[in-house]
Structures are given as C-alpha cells and as structure tokens.
Amino acid sequence: MFFQMIGEMLTYTFMQRALIVGVLIALCSSLLGVSLVLKRYSMIGDGLSHVGFGTLAIASALNIAAPLEFAVPIIIVAAFFLLKLSENSKIKGDSAIAILSSSAMAIGIVATSVSTGLNADIESYLFGSILAMSQKDMILCIILGVVVIGMYILFYNRIFAVTFDETFAKATGTRANRYNLVIAVLTALTVVIGMKIMGTLLISSLIIFPALTSMRVCKRFFSVIVCSSIVAVVSFVIGIVCSYFFSTAAGASVVLVNLLMFIIFTIIGKVRSH
C-alpha cells in the first residue's frame, strides 16, 4: 500500500521536479552549511534569502518575465557587499546581515504593496511552493546546482583551509578573502535555487540544520560533510513525502524532519560520549 502511494506520488510532474531540485538544494546547502556554521556565519543564508525576496518582489512589480534569472546577479552582488561590509567596517557579522536582510525585506514589501499586492507568486517566494516550480525553473536550478557542487569540489582544499584557520591559510599564501567570497557566492546561488520550494523564511534552516546535526556525532571535517549531505537529502525526501501524504506545506515539513533528525543525533551523540 505504501509503495503504491509512493508510485502514485511520483506520477505527478510537480513532485518529480520538487524531488530533483530538492535533492540538489539539500546537497548544496549541506556542503556550504558546514563551513558557514564553523565560521559562525550561518545566518548569511537568511540575509541573502531576504535580499532574494526583495529582488523577486521588485521583478514581480515590474512584470519581469524571468524573475529567478533577474535575481541571480543581484543576490551575488549582495553576498559580495555583505562580505565586504562585515570585513572592512565596524559593522560585523550578524549586524551586517540584520541590516541587509531587514532593508531588503522592507523594499520587497513596499514594492508588493504598491503594485500587485500579496499574490500567489509573492506568497510562494515567502513560504515556498512545489507547485510554483516550472520546467524552466527546474532547468535553471539544475544548472546552478551543478555549478555550486562542481565549484565546491574544485576549491575543497582552499575552503577547508579558510574554514578552520584563516590566519594560517593567509600565512601559507592562500588568498583567504577570495575563497571567503567563493563561499558567499555559492551560498547566494544555493539561496536562489531553494527559494521556490523552501521559501524566504525557511531556506536558511536547510543550510544550518544538517551541519549542526552531523556535528553531534562526527568530528572530522570530511565526515561531517558526508554525514551532513546524507542527513540533508534524507530529511528533504522524507519531508516532501510527508507533505504529499498529509497535505502540509513542503518547506515547513522538511524543516520539521530536520529538527527531528537534530534531536535524534543529539541523543546519539550524548549516549556515545558516556
């Protein structure tokens, strides 16, 4: 009976798109989340998602035909600006993110209120919707997802170096600022990919939860990355299946499964430590 229902679920095109894109989102966010959490910069995803909402709201107000394509360069610029603002001024880390995210959200809300109002498209950007994922969106997300994973693998050693000891990395000739920017840009692309399904309000949880969960039981960087990727993908698939069976919001269902995973791994970690 269960497998019959799964088979029925997979006959729907929107579910196929959601699973394909969702697995890519889970992989991208889990890879980057480990570095962002260790660098205490985990809320960058939240800040960039708010910038994404502001950008998409403006695109909707201007009736731009390809809002995601419009959002990509702006969110990348925001990632660069956020990094520089945090590095070169008295406004550090969480304060810089708070300023950028609240300003972008306010711009998006004003743009929405003076144009179309809170229509279905804008609501899907806020809360996520698997029904809002078109074939064109799926293709763009696949391309961006492959780029993110490919670049992460290509720069893995440098990302590892700047994550654990940025000062030592600079002393050995690694251009730490360049690779911090790589992390920020890859995070920006991941946010763009994830906003359609997870929504502005929940996408950052997909970056934070798998990394924190895997750190409950794993201690080495590589093992944390592998465990985080597995947890992220499994949590996403279970969340989407639960969303379909119980008619709940997809993004919220995925986050709740991630929360359950975090609790389970925390208990396992405590049992193992005794």
Average pLDDT score: 82
Rg is 19 Å
Number of helices: 13
Helices and strands, in N-to-C order? Answer: HHHHHHHHHHHHH
What is the multimeric organization of the chains shown? single chain
Q: What general form does the structure show?
A: globular
The fraction of residues in strands falls at under 5%
Helix proportion range: over 70%
Largest sheet: none
The chain-level structural class is mainly alpha
* pLDDT < 50 stretches: none
End-to-end Cα distance:
41 Å
Short description:
The chain is mainly alpha-helical.
Describe, in plain words, how this protein is organized in 3D.
By secondary structure, this protein is mainly alpha-helical. Helices cover 82% and strands 0% of the residues. It has helices at 2-9, 13-38, 44-61, 67-88, 93-113, 120-127, 135-154, 156-164, 166-171, 176-198, 203-215, 221-246, 250-273. Helix 2 crosses helix 11, helix 3 (44-61) crosses helix 4 and helix 11 packs parallel to helix 13 (250-273). The protein is globular, with a radius of gyration of 19 Å. 46% of the residues are buried. The model has no long low-confidence stretch (mean pLDDT 82).
Distinctive features:
single chain; 274 residues; mainly alpha; 13 helices; 82% helix
List the helices and strands and how they pair.
Blueprint: H1 2-9, H2 13-38, H3 44-61, H4 67-88, H5 93-113, H6 120-127, H7 135-154, H8 156-164, H9 166-171, H10 176-198, H11 203-215, H12 221-246, H13 250-273
Helix pairs in contact: 2-7, 2-10, 2-11, 2-12, 3-4, 3-5, 3-6, 3-10, 3-11, 4-5, 4-10, 6-10, 7-10, 8-10, 11-12, 11-13, 12-13
